Amino acid sequence: MTLPFTLSAPDIREIGEALYGEAWQVQMAKALGVPRQSVGYYLKAGAVNGTQAAAIIGLLARAAVRELRAGEQEQATRDARQADLTKLIVRFDPA
Q1: Helix (H) or strand (E) holding 1
Q2: Where are the beta strands (DSSP E) in 4-88?
Q3: How far apart are alpha carbons 16 and 82 in whole angstroms?
Q4: In angstroms, rounded to a whole number, what is the distance separating the alpha carbons of residues 47 and 52?
Q5: 13, 31, 30, 10: which is closest to 22 by C-alpha?
Q6: How high is the pLDDT of residue 58?
Q7: In degrees, to the nearest 5, what angle opens at C-alpha 80 toward C-alphas 77 and 83?
Q8: Which CATH architecture has domain 6-92?
Q9: φ and ψ at 44, to 5 degrees?
Q10: Residue-wise over 56-95: b if at least 16 C-beta within 10 A, else e?
């Protein structure tokens, strides 16, 4: 069964650079569990679809979720710190 979406070579490059920076091909290949040459092949072929496209989009989705969760944790830490500081302000300057 072929999945109904395609990623062009520029799409793959854009995702790779967004996730891993300029030297992205090796890291993307490692994350996908394929040889680095496979990523080069995807680029030379001009596009990927089906399973390869889904795997690359999955990398992007997992990275987005990780960053969202990290941001939520950082926000929770900042909120707790702000609450602690506010308690101190009230304690030492009740006016």
Answers
A1: none
A2: 6-8, 47-49
A3: 37
A4: 10
A5: 13
A6: 93
A7: 150
A8: Orthogonal Bundle (1.10)
A9: -65, -35
A10: beebeeeeeeeeeeeeeeeeeeeeeeeeeeeeeeeeeeee
Q: In the numeric block, which tokens belong to residue 9?
A: 């070579």
Taking the domains of the chain in order of start, what are their residue ranges? 6-92
pLDDT by residue for the chain (95 residues), tens digit each? 455 789 999 999 999 999 999 999 999 999 999 999 999 999 999 999 889 999 999 999 999 999 989 989 899 999 999 999 999 988 888 77
Look-up: residue for tokens 């987005």? Answer: 64
What local confidence, expressed as pLDDT, does residue 28 receive?
Answer: 94
With tokens 């030492």, the residue in question is: 92
